[in-house]
Every structure is written in structure tokens, then in C-alpha cells.
Amino acid sequence: DMRGPLYTALVKQATSLTLFHVRELLETQGISTLLSFLDKISRNPDEKTSYRRLKQDPSFMSILKKAEELRQEDHPKVKELVGIVRKQVEGASSSKVLVFTQYRDTASHLVEKLSNVPNLRVARFVGQTSKEEDIGLSQKEQAQILSEYRDGNLNVLVATCIAEEGLDIPDVDLVVFYEPIPSEIRYIQRKGRTGRRRVGKAIVLLAEDTVDVAYQMASLRRVEKMRRT
Description:
- It is a single chain.
- This protein is α/β, with parallel strands linked by helices.
- It contains 9 helices and 5 strands, in the order H-H-H-H-H-E-H-E-H-E-E-H-E-H.
- Strand 4 (174-177), helix 8 and strand 5 (201-204) form a beta-alpha-beta unit.
């Protein structure tokens, strides 16, 4: 009967993938997003067997405690992003900036940081689905945000993948990827939000020696393959 050993192996694999995700969040997103994920494991240990195993491990509490101690430490990307967006708006006050990130928790953190910068009028733009305590935006709320962005009442949107396609988002002057994505289609869609009717710019933020670099290289290779085809 292999069900016992197979189940044990699957649980260990799931736990390993969860730990890999923890490391990826720390290296590419920062303490704030990592803490949100660790809190989820703490609050919902029964959601997944891998979560329960991790919470029972003494090392997990050590990681959580250390992350709490470093809560105020920002990822270097945050400072870089703030500088890039500030420079763009200072150079052209009518500029519109679109910042993409994979995670809603990161989007919330970036909105908080960018909102402290003079002359930046920032909004978070996410999908309609609610995820645990994170309430999504209704269609009406999305339309209102886009209207204010189009009219200039907002000049920076921090968005998840919802802004990649399909919505009537006006042409923007600067697109910033907070992290790269390995999909060539999504890479092109994101870049395509700028440079439609006037010169635009896209910037991708990478954390050295992390999966960021691998994802960026994978995306560029696939884009080049599409061009050759």
C-alpha cells in the first residue's frame, strides 16, 4: 500500500513549495508582504496540511518573530520605485504612471509609501474578487478610479494583473514592473500600456541574485522567440 508514503511525500513537497514561496516573498517583495503571508498561515493553519506542518515547527515561530522585528525595514525596490515615480512627475507634472505588482498586499504597501510623496495622487487598482480580509473593487469603483485617473485627479495607479488587458485605461507615460513576470504575453501587455500615442517608458525592477532575474531572462527569451517566429 503506497498511499501512506505517497501522501507523506506529497505533503513534504507542498511544504517545500510553501517555504520556497516564503523565501521568494522575502527576496522580491519585502517584509510587509511576507508578514501578510505568514499571518495567513498563522490564522488558517487548517487551510492546508503544509500550513499546519509549518505552524507546528518551532522554526516557523522564529521566522515570524524575526519578520515582526524587521517590519519597518523596506525592500530596496520600494525606495527605488519612489525615486523613479517622483522623478517622472517632477519632470512632467501631467505624467501618468502605472505600477504593476503581482500581489495585493504589495500593492497596498506601495500605495501607502507613494502617497507620502508630494504631488503624487495614488490609488490601488485590483480585481472584483475579495480574498479573505482584502475586499475587491466593484465594477463601479473600478470605473470611478479609472475616470479620476483619466481626468488627472489621480496620477499614479498601483495595479495587479487586472490592469494588463481589457479595461479602458488611458495611455500612460511610465509603466513600472515592481517585479518581472516570466510570461511573454503578460510582459508585452504590461509594456503596451505606455507608448501608444506618445513616447513612453517601461522600467522593470529586479532584486539581484533572486528569482526576479530568472523570470526576467525567461520573459525576454520568449519575447525574442516570438519575434523570430
